[in-house]
Amino acid sequence: MSKKILAVALAAAMILGLASVAFAASFTDIEGHAREGAIERLKGLGLIDGYGDGTFRPDGSITRAEVSKLIVFAMGLKDAAEMLEGVPVGFADVAANHWATGYISVASTQGIVKGYPDGTFQPENKVTYAEILTMILRALGYGPALDHLPWPNAYIAKAAELKINKGVSFNANSPATRGDVAALLANAMTVPKLVQVTYGDSVRYVVSGTEGTKAVTLLNDMGAVSKMGWLVVSPDLFSWDDGEPIVLDEVVEDEDDNTPEHDVPFYLAEGTECVGLLGHYVRVWLNEDEEVFYVEDLTPATAIKTASRVSGDSRKVKYDGKVKSIPDTAVMFRNHAVDTSKTTQPGDEITVILDDGAIKYLVVKNYKWGVVDTVNTTYERIVFDGSSNDSAITLKGFDVTWLGAASSLEDLEENDVVQYIKDDTEKKAVLVVTRNSVVGKFEKLSGDSVKTVTVDGSEYREPEVASGNKSVGISASNLGKEVTLLLNKDGKVVKMIAATTTSTSTLAVVTGKSKSEDEWDPAVEVYKLRLFGTDGKTVVLELAPNVAEYDVDGKQTDADPNAEGIQNPEASAVYQEIKIGDIIAYKTNSRGKINYVAYKVRYTPPTSEDPAANERLDIDRDYALIERTVSGPSVKITADTVVFDITDPTDPDVLDVEDLLANEWITGGVAHSAGKATVVGITKAQLAADTNLYAMVYGMYQGPKGSSYSWFLRLLAEGVVSDYATDSVSGLKTKDVIKFTLRGGEIDSFEKLSEVRPDTINTVYEDLRITEIDLENKLITVQGFRRSDGSDVEGTEWFLLVDDDTLFYDVTGSSPKSIELVDLSVMAKVRVYTDDGTVDGDVVAVVVLQ
What we know:
Shape: flat
Strand order of the largest sheet: 1-46-45-44-49-50-47-48
Largest sheet: 8 strands, mixed
Number of strands: 50
Distance between the termini: 27 Å
Strand content: 35-45%
Radius of gyration: 36 Å
Helix content: 10-25%
């Protein structure tokens, strides 16, 4: 780590560009965020921009000055604001050279924002939810109707009535997030404004679009125009390519337009989405470049029906309990293309879109499916196990849309159910991957052309499909057996797998041996082993009278167990041979007795504390290799390598591969196959020298460890809570910051770090508070404050240079939580911890006390 505290003053300026005329590229930190759609819509309109690093920071806050700029842009008054730049504003705390003077002037003049009773505007104050809703409603013309009513109750109630706050939950007096501000404004862009219709002594306002007035919205204020029509060409069609226009049919500008245009093309602005709206009646909003920046779905939910085919008549469908004929005027989209046949097929998934009660469009999908056997990523080929019309599909050169449990070929696993639509001409495909399975007893089989199986009392049906794509493995011969059902995305059975009875070996460490007399026949001795398995559990099993025994090289010590007339070693011989601490693979017979033992690692205790006196196995952490220093080849460590700590052979432990890689060297043994380590037994380990770790104490408890109990520390670092066994928790409490090392997955040593501060702050000031945050240079400036209200700033500033390894915590709640540098705020009270507890040490953690 390189986290030195700077003793020099650094200046940095960070300007938040929330509103911009220029169109911005997609932000790097909004994918998957709840406000992604709203942010993209405003970005497409050219209303918002982000930070210089390409982020938007949707969970950050926004100031009154920034919102003033945003609202002024939304009202189409940016030109007026730019002309007033540098002109003094009538607020005591807004200088003429403030970057937002023009926006504050226009917003104030328009009655959108108002100052405080002391004559200030407080431009850097964080905007609350109540304030942003008030500004939006005033921009919509509702100020005269609401300003005389109790604030903020009247504004919040009106916002709810107009659905401006749809999908946004908040506390009225809490600071609004940037993402939520975008969502609220996006919701408001198409809300009809309140307009004045009479003047003089009888002033009256009406909602625009009523009483003969023309509907006006903020989008209209910005100069945006809209068109309405049926979406007939969109990215949902395989034939559509990026850069091509979408197409609307029966296009009109408003409800009174009686001259619709047909098949009108519209180009999409970058980032505009309309997937899933094929066949819907929509409104497209155009920016000043006549590009679509937002597609608004106008199709009511009651006009969208899920339908089924009618057996025996391919030109009819059924929905709402009624059978309807497909009219000749209807358009059918099948498998992402136009289908002129307008006929249904077995297995069709049908969505009907109605216009005035009549079928206008049908969107039909008919998936093939397969159960994954193998995947060749080089040739981009999926081989199925026989449950598909195709034995395999090749996707090389295809534009693939992945849905469900996988997002690439590399993600696919054996027995994944893949439903797919593939167009060899357009070189496009949609794959839906499902990992739904049911395990239980196969109790009943019914049905003829479509089978129904009953497993553990629940029924599962085959899909109704054309011949040649039926479920695999459903057979009466499996009745009464334990089976696994593989289900598709609709919960239908595509494959049944009967449980096998093949005996598999189990890995374990021998932790004890015992022999005793048989309770029925004192002349017969019973031999038992106590075994510690990879699941951390201990079992005691009896040796069968004859046991197939294999040495570490895989050679049988006596004879082939399946050879007739040849006896395996007797249990007594195996009992004598096996040692406590040996790592074995074993199998049991139908009576639960061990009838197979294969030695993986023979236990050899270290002969000396000096590693040179033993065969040392060096760990090459960069290449995940175990390099033997005495004999044998180097072997590769993999994620499947099983690691046992057998330093104490009577009390072993299971370790993670990461624990093994944390060492410089070990003594013990390794079993390998095809150059890969399969089992490693550690009898002594040496941790690498640079393994100091840092974390905050999340909690502590006592719990089981092997056959005994131990203390466990629950530690929080970078959002992850991990539990580690430790000999002691003396002197620790929740929210302490510690430096610690691990050995074998357990805490080897720890040191509680002390909060550090410059002497002048320790002796003079009550607490530390953040006064400036430079995200670009990762610099935090802190100062001491005499009183808890943040007044009387004095003394020398302290500059903290942090990096990606620095830990940040918020401890204001009952339990600490990890945060990021971007989550810090000015005036937050902080504690600072360094690696050596001194002012000159590397900054390990910054703890926030809001």
